[in-house]
Amino acid sequence: DAKRGGRGIVRVFDESMDEGIRFRRRVESGLSQAIAKGELSLAYQPIVSRDAIDVVGFEALVRWNTQEYGLMSPATFIPIAEESNLIHELGDWVLGQALDVLQQWPGQYVSVNFSPRQFRRHNFVGHIMESVQRAGIAPARLQIEITETAIFDDAERAAETLYKLRQMGFRIALDDFGTGYSSLYNIRKFALDCLKIDKSFIDGMGRERESAAIVHSIIHLGRALGLGVIAEGVETEAQVQALRLAGASHMQGYFFSRPVNAERALEMARKGTVSGSDDVSTDDHRI
Ligand code: C2E
Ligand code: MG
Ligand code: MG
Ligand code: MG
């Protein structure tokens, strides 16, 4: 940068770091008050059966309407919450909210994302059980979404946690499958119900043979292990056709519906289908 002249790279680097840290602090302090201020909400995205007729469940996705930046993506603030203790408070709020809404749906499950730190929290199993019992919900109606990162650090302990959860009747989904550090050796030891194929592979399916091959492999793996396979981020008719042919058991994506608010989700849940839902919502993040 010519304007900075002799100050050099180190100085430029420092400045950008300061900015990053300032942003993080601001997000952290904003987030610590977000629940009390009512700035958080949940959006629900339907998960549909292979034939795209039945809505079997909804993924709960947290939304934060910040005063400073507008609607902020969870991809931005969840990692910041994860690095501080805020993830627990935020996670508890998400779970409580999702379970409340679930009570009104006829039979679908709610799929809730848990970050690695939540999953490794002391007495995670007891905590989850207590929450569903308090809400009067059958464990089978809660799907716990975790990523490979959450379980592959300490595989032994994770396997035990998952086993207990599964014994109690919870559903377990491995999210963003294929992007983390799974080893097939470990996968077979984990008590899972389904694999969620990451959107990046679905995106690539029509473009590159490699992505299509990976998608097919994951679907075969899932079937061989007796697991469901949810394809994430399905946006086009062509993807739907290809995934059906490949044998994916479930799909989720903008093609069917964007994440919608609780009211709209309830309508879909009651109808039991996404067809005919003239979805015009955008659910776009500004940051
Ligand atoms: P994820 O769990 O993999 O969620 C799927 C993401 O893909 C969501 O982004 C969803 O809105 C988006 N998506 C779904 N279908 C499509 C599609 O067809 N096209 C495109 N372009 N996107 C699609 P979102 O809501 O921004 O969430 C991002 C990530 O933030 C989530 O990825 C999850 O890792 C995390 N997250 C969201 N809510 C929570 C939460 O309550 N707790 C935790 N711990 N993490 C959360
Ligand atoms: Mg997820
Ligand atoms: Mg995912
Ligand atoms: Mg993701």
UniProtKB/TrEMBL annotation:
Signal peptide boundaries: none
Q: Where is the EAL domain?
A: 24-273
Where do the record's region annotations for Disordered lie?
Answer: 273-287
Please identify the protein, giving its name as recorded. Answer: Diguanylate cyclase
- Where does this protein come from, organism-wise? Sphingomonas aurantiaca
Q: Which residues of the full protein are shown?
A: 339 to 625 of 633
